[in-house]
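fyi for ur records
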Amino acid sequence: MGQGGDGAFAAIERSALAVAMRQELWLYPSVEILHILGFVTLVGSIAVLDLRLLGLSRQVPVRGLARHVLPWALGALIVIVPTGLMMFLAHATDFVTNRAFLVKLCLIFAAGINAAAFHVGAYRSVDRWDSGMATPALAKVHALLSLSIWTGVIACGRLLAFV
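which gave:
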């Protein structure tokens, strides 16, 4: 990072919220716990749908399952984004140079692209394979990619403290 980038991230770390995140005994751990709970909800919701797409529980309609789990995933994002930003503020200069953090962000972006591609692609024909039918190969590819990407995000999240 150049001096300008370092200065901006150092300034972020001097913000009142960043200082509080580092100095208040229970603030950072509480925010981290909320972040993890949100992440568990997000990835759990997505994994249930992905496993259905891979052929488990074929009697469960894909559209019904999606209508059930996707609001949970979106709700989880409402928790994950601000808590993740709060943790970033506290250690911005460390995070922007941490390979695990950078890979995590790239994987989250890839997960978003994969989900969008699934919804504008394979999911458009869901009425033909919604329940009791084999999932099309392209939908299975999206599900495998999703499970793999989110596993990588989880791994990178854990590696943040060690890399």
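The chain has a mean pLDDT of 95. thats all i got for now
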